[in-house]
Write a structure and sequence with these properties.
Elements: H1 2-14, H2 17-44, H3 48-65, H4 68-86, H5 98-146, H6 154-166, E1 170-175, E2 180-184, H7 193-202, E3 206-208, E4 213-220, E5 223-231, H8 237-300, H9 306-337, E6 346-348, H10 350-360, H11 362-365, E7 370-374, E8 381-383, H12 385-402, E9 409-416, E10 419-425, H13 458-468, E11 472-479, E12 482-490
Parallel strand pairs: 7-9
Antiparallel strand pairs: 1-2, 1-5, 3-4, 4-5, 6-8, 9-10, 10-12, 11-12
Helix pairs in contact: 2-3, 2-4, 3-4, 3-5, 4-5, 5-6, 5-8, 6-8, 8-9, 10-12, 12-13
Length: 499
């Protein structure tokens, strides 16, 4: 039953539009021969040699335009008409002069040979154009696969791109590592999954010309790593193998990229731990030294005056608060890096948030004058106060690290484009042009850092907090006289895009 169905399908294909087109072209060829015969016999009445050349030119034109079948039919018709109308005795198919027999057969042989040569040249031209088209498609496909983003799934993206570039009606791709089959295209590929699994396991090739379906294995290093199924105008074996190779390259590229991303994530995680430990050790050292000196003085009994003892106790209490803030910020940073930012939003004025950030930075600012300018008509903001204080602290800390001692720091808050914008200005050396796209990268420290201690995480942390609120951090302006870094936050009533 299956054999009968396949045979019927082939017969249907053979009697399809292609046969009708050839039949119409054969009739047109006969019409051309008839027109030349009528014009020569009724109108022009040239000699036999001229008519022979006229027929020959027409046959060559038919062969060039349509093909061998049409030109052969035209050749036979032209020989018959040439004999009947132009070789004596006229209006009969007999030839009285033996020389005319030679001329007649020479004409027939020349017509057939010329038709074959013309048809062969036309076929070679067609094949060349097909190969060129295949090369252009393969090039476009290779670019699409190599530049593709893995967001939609690599195997599904490969199948979709192959179907689009080569205009297949349906395509399917099996990734052997996951066992998942991805279908794409305007049509379905029913009952193809089993062929895909067999091709991915055994490396077999399945081809059904009746339905225009082919299934081939996708190999890498001689081992099947998947399978590709296509339906439509099937390509040559060479192009099919090239498609399978490109699919293998795309799949392997995606796997290599995933492995590189995992390695980079592991490296950054290790770098984060090292830099955070280094930063915490440095930050904890100052308050611990003050606390140790104060408690040692109290325990030694050297300080006996009540006011002096009270001052030392106040120092210890302040440094304990400082340590508590450091630990809290370290926890926030760890959560930010883990992608687990949880915002506790509330409507509140911006001024207390700025004041809290400046208060926590008193020791780091080291006596630098700070000029604060907050717009009077600035509405409330809808933010997480603790996280916002941490973000502003990073900008203040960056300004303090890169500004010379005694240089003022400016803090300006205003409304801009429906957002609250906080800008922190310093009098540092500025940011070189070559570094302006990198200063917000994790662990990056500018060439002007010198011996300044830091982790290179401050601006990156500020940007992540701002983006969690639906805002942004950017370099507003910079020169050799200083830089302005700005932070935008949503105003009251604006939710932003919390992470």
């Amino acid at each position: 039953m299956a054999t009968f169905s396949a045979t019927a399908a082939r017969l249907h294909k053979a009697t399809g539009p292609g046969v009708v087109r050839v039949a119409l072209q054969v009739l047109a060829s006969l019409a051309i021969v008839a027109a030349i015969t009528w014009a020569g016999y009724r109108v022009i009445r040239p000699n036999a040699t001229t008519m022979g050349f006229a027929y020959l030119v027409a046959i060559l034109a038919v062969a060039s335009a349509w093909g061998l079948v049409e030109s052969l039919v035209a050749s036979v018709a032209a020989v018959l008409c040439f004999n009947f109308f132009f070789l004596p005795p006229l209006l009969t198919l007999t030839v009285s002069d033996p020389q005319n027999w030679v001329a007649l057969f020479a004409f027939l042989a020349t017509s057939i040979l010329a038709s074959q040569l013309s048809a062969r040249a036309k076929e070679r031209t067609r094949e060349t154009l097909e190969r060129q088209k295949d090369m252009e498609r393969l090039y476009a496909l290779s670019r699409s696969i190599l530049l593709a983003d893995a967001g939609e799934g690599v195997a599904h993206g490969i199948a979709r791109q192959i179907a689009q570039v080569f205009e297949f009606s349906a395509a399917a791709f099996l990734d052997r590592s996951t066992g998942t089959i991805y279908h794409t295209g305007p049509e379905d590929l029913p009952e193809i999954d089993e062929h895909l699994r067999e091709a991915s396991l055994k490396g077999t090739l399945f081809r059904d010309d009746a339905s225009g379906t082919v299934v081939t294995s996708v190999r890498l290093g001689g081992e099947p790593i998947g399978a590709l199924a296509l339906r439509g105008q099937l390509p040559s074996d060479t192009v099919l193998q090239a498609l399978a190779n490109l699919a293998a390259i795309g799949l392997e590229k995606a796997r290599a990229q995933e492995a590189a991303n995992r390695a980079e994530a592991a490296r950054e995680s290790q770098d984060l731990k090292s830099t955070l430990l280094d930063a915490l050790a440095h930050e904890f050292k100052t308050p611990l030294t003050s606390m140790k000196a104060s408690t040692s003085a109290l325990l030694s009994g050297v300080v006996t005056e009540p006011q002096a003892r009270q001052d030392l106790i106040v120092v210890v209490n302040e440094e304990i608060d400082h340590l508590n803030r450091l630990v809290t910020e370290a926890v926030h940073v760890a959560r930010i890096e883990a992608g687990a930012v949880q915002l506790d939003r509330a409507r509140q004025p911006l001024t207390p948030i700025l004041a809290a950030a400046l208060h926590t930075m008193e020791s780091s600012i080291e006596g630098r004058p700070v000029k604060v300018d907050v717009a009077q008509d600035l509405p409330q903001v809808n933010v997480d106060a603790d996280m916002t204080v941490l973000a502003i602290r990073q900008l203040l800390d960056n300004a303090a690290r890169y500004s010379p001692r005694g240089a003022p720091i400016g803090v300006q808050a205003s409304g801009r484009d429906g957002r609250a914008v906080i800008c922190v200005s310093d009098h540092g050396p500025g940011v070189p042009l070559s570094e302006r796209t990198r200063i917000f990268d994790k662990f990056y420290r500018g060439s002007n850092a010198g011996s300044t201690h830091g982790t290179g995480m401050g601006l990156a942390i500020a940007r992540q907090i701002a983006r969690a609120h639906g805002g942004e951090v950017w370099l507003e302006k910079t020169s050799s006289a200083g830089s302005d870094f700005c932070l935008s936050l949503p105003l009251d009533g604006e939710k932003g895009s919390a992470s």
